[in-house]
Amino acid sequence: MTIFRLGEQRPPEPRRIKEDVVERFEHVFEIDPxxxxxxxxQHLPAWDTHRIxxxxxxxxxxxxxxxxxxxxxxxxxSETMGGHE
Amino acid sequence: MDDAVVDxxxxxxxxxxxxxxxxxxxxxxxxVPAPFPVHRWAEFMPDVAVLPVSAExxxxxxxxxxxxxxPVVPRAGGTGLSDGAVPLRGGICVDVKLMNKIHEIDLEDRxxxxxxxxxxxxxNEELRPxxxxxxxxxxxxxxxxxxxxxxxxxxSLLGARFGHTRDLVISMQVxxxxxxxxxIGDGGGRKLRKSSTGLTLKQLFxxxxxTLGITTEATLELVPRPELEFSxxxxxxxxxxxxxxxxALTRSGLATLAGVVLFDEWKLRYLRRDDEAYIPQxxxxxxxxxxxxxxxxxxxxxxxKRVMELGRAEGGKYLGDEISxxxxxxxxxxxxxxxxxxxxxxxxxxxxxxxxxAALNYSVLPQVREExxxxxxxxxxxxxxxxxxxxxxxxxxxxxxxxxxxxxxDVGIWEQQLDDETWAGWVACKREIAEVALxxxxxxxxxxxxxxEGDADLVPTEMGSAWEVVKRVKRALDPNNVMNPGxxxxxEAYE
Lengths: 85, 495
Hints:
- The complex is a heterodimer of chains A (85) and B (495).
- Chain A is an alpha+beta fold.
- Chain A is 26% helix and 18% strand.
- A three-stranded antiparallel β-sheet of chain A has the order 1-2-3, with no helix packed on it.
- In chain A, a hairpin with a 2-residue loop joins strand 2 and strand 3 (28-31).
- The radius of gyration of chain A is 17 Å and the shape is extended.
- Chain B is an alpha+beta fold and 495 residues long.
- Chain B folds into four domains: 3-95, 2-Layer Sandwich (Uridine Diphospho-n-acetylenolpyruvylglucosamine Reductase, domain 2); 102-224, Uridine Diphospho-n-acetylenolpyruvylglucosamine Reductase, domain 3 (2-Layer Sandwich); 228-455, Vanillyl-alcohol Oxidase, Chain A, domain 3, CATH 3.40.462.40; 460-494.
- Helix content of chain B is 32%, strand content 22%.
- Chain B has 15 helices and 20 strands.
- In chain B, the strands form five sheets. A seven-stranded antiparallel β-sheet of chain B has the order 15-12-14-13-19-20-18, with helices on both faces. Chain B has a five-stranded antiparallel β-sheet with strand order 5-6-10-8-9.
- In chain B, a hairpin with a 5-residue loop joins strand 8 and strand 9 (181-184).
- In chain B, helix 1 packs antiparallel against helix 3, helix 8 packs antiparallel against helix 10 (297-312) and helix 12 runs antiparallel to helix 13 (420-439).
- The longest helix of chain B has 20 residues, at 420-439.
- The two termini of chain B are 26 Å apart.
- The A-B interface holds A 17-18, 20-21, 27-29, 31, 35-39, 59-61, 63-64, 66-81, 83-84 and B 121, 124-125, 133, 137, 225-232, 235, 237, 273-274, 276, 279-282, 284-285, 294, 297, 300-301, 304, 308, 317-323, 325-326, 329-330, 332-333, 336, 340, 342-343, 346-350.
- Strand 4 of chain A pairs parallel with strand 12 of chain B.
C-alpha cells in the first residue's frame, strides 16, 4: 500500500539531461520549461506523475496480452546506448 | 431543416431519443481527428443526427432523404484521418454506433457477423475465449468501428500477415443510396472467400467513403489467435542503410511477418525531442526500423532469429527488448498520444495531427521523402503554424509486403491559429504533397481516403481513363446524389 504524505508530493528539482529535456524522476522526461513559456507546463504532484507512468505500463502490458498469448524476448539490452561502434 | 422532416425521422425510428436535432449532438458529429477549419465549424454541421438500430431503419431514412433530396452522411467512430464522415452540405448524419451487436460467431466456418457500430477491441475481447481473433489493427484500434473501417477501406498494422480491412470482410449487408437493402459478397454465399459467379462487388463497397451506401452488417474473417508476438526495432546511422534493410526484411519470405515500418531522419528528430523511448538515443541514430511478427511459437521463434540477422546485416543496432516491445504495443493506439508541436521559435504549442498518406512503390521512397519534407519546410517558414513530425513507411501489400508502402508524413497544425489564409495555405500544401505521390506513380492515399479539399481535387487525375467508369457507377447507384455528396469530386458524375 502506498501512503500519501503531503510533504512528499512536491516533485524534486529538475535535472537537465539534454539541451531541451529535463528529468525529475528516473526515466520520466519533461520538456525544458524554457520552451513552455507560451503554454506553461501544469504542476503535477508526485503521485500523479507516478500514476500516469504506471498506467502507461499497464496499458502496454494489456495490449501485448490482447494481441497474443505470449511475447518473445531476445534477452538483449539496447545496442545503441553504449556509443557507436 | 424543416421540423416536418425531423418529425418524419422520429416516426421512422419510433424513439425521440435517437433523433438529435440539438446543436451539441450536431456539433459533436461535425469534424474528425484530422485538422479542421475550426473557424468555419458551423459550415460542416449536419442538420440532424439519427441513431438507427436496424437496416430497415437505415433504409427508411435513406428513402426519405431521396424523396426530399437531403444529403446523408454515414458516421461510425468518427476517427478518420480524412473527411469521409464530415458533412460538406449539412443533411442527415446516420450515426451507426448503436448497431454494435455481435450477431453470430461461427467457429466451424470461421466467421463473425457483426453490426457496423462495434469496435475491434471490444469484438476481440468477446472472441478471445474461443481462441480466434479479428486482426484488423489500425492506429485507432481502441476507438474506430467496423463500419468506418469498411467505408474507409482501412489499412492494418498487421496487414502483411493477415490482410487489410477489405481482405478481412467476407460479405456485408448494404443500404444503397436509394434505400434498398442488398447482400454483397464474393458471389452469393455469405461466408465464401472466393467465387467466380457474376461481378465481384465486394471491393466496390469497401473504401467508397460513404458515397455508395451504408454497411449495416458485416461478416468478418476469424484467424487463430496468435500464440506469440515478436517485435524488434533497429537503429541506423544512415537512412539508406535502413531503407535497404527494410527491403531485405520485406523480401525475406517469412510468412509470419506482420509489418515492417521505416522511420526517417525527420521522424527521429521529432521523436528524440518528444518521445521517452527516443529522447535518450545518441545523435548518430538517424533512422529506425520496426519489425513485428505474429503466429504460432513453432513459426515465430525460428523466424525471429532470421529477423535479427537481417536487421543487423547493414549495421543496424537492436534497440533492446524494452523499447522494441513497448513501442510496438503503443502502435495499436496512437490516438491517445497528447499532441503538441513547436512553433518556429521552438516554443511548445498545442497542435493537431495531420497524417498525409500515399501508396508508393519501394523504389521511389527516398526521393519522395526529400520532396515532401522540402514542401512542408516552405509552408512552415511561410505560415509559422505547422511543424514537420517526420515520415513513416509501412508495408502496404496484403500478404505481399515487398513492393509497396503506406507512406505518411505527419504534420502538426496549430488549429487555434487557423483563418482563411492559413487554411488555404494548408490545402495548397496538401495538394503539393499529393502531386508528388502522383508524379512518382503512386496513389494519393493508401488508407485515409481522398475526401478533403487539397487532395480530393486530384482524384480524377489519379483515376485517369477509369474516371468515366467511376462516375457512371456513382450516378447509377445514387441517381439523386444524396449519399455523402461533395466527396472525391463525384459531383462531376451529375454534370
